[in-house]
Amino acid sequence: MASEVAPAGTGAASKGRVIALVLIVLVLGIGAGMGAYFIGKSGGEDLEAARIAGAAAGQRQGSARGAEIGYARGFKAGREQGYHQAYDAAYKGAYRNAFADAGLDAPKKISVPSQ
């Protein structure tokens, strides 16, 4: 004689528990969502003040950083430009002075190496 035994968890009572558990989770999720909404909504009065303060702080930080980086880039570009403009004349002058210091006549044509 074979007896038929229903597997555990397949009865009407367990289905009711699953449905109750799903409903509890759903209600808790809705409650958490509503709570988050109202908490976020309650801080709206300070939002404009926070935006103004944030914009001012960003402006100060951006100006300071721009001045620091801009100065460094401008200084480098200016130094390079001045170097390129003065290189040929300075090289020729130093070359002539070296010959003069040695008591020799400097050549008329001085070939300047590339920078």
Mean pLDDT figure: 84
How many separate domains? 1
Strand residue percentage = under 5%
Radius of gyration: 41 Å
Question: How many H/I helices?
Answer: 2
Shape: rod-shaped
Spatial separation of the terminal alpha carbons: 105 Å
The tally of strands reads 0
Write the H/E string, N to C. Answer: HH
Give an account of the 3D structure.
The chain is rod-shaped and about 115 Å long. Helix content is 75%, strand content 0%. It contains 2 helices and no strands. It has helices spanning 12-42, 47-101. By secondary structure, it is an all-alpha fold. It has one domain.
What's the SSE blueprint?
Blueprint: H1 12-42, H2 47-101
Which key terms come to mind for this protein?
mainly alpha, 0% strand, single chain
Q: Summed up, what is this model?
A:
Helix content is 75%, strand content 0%.
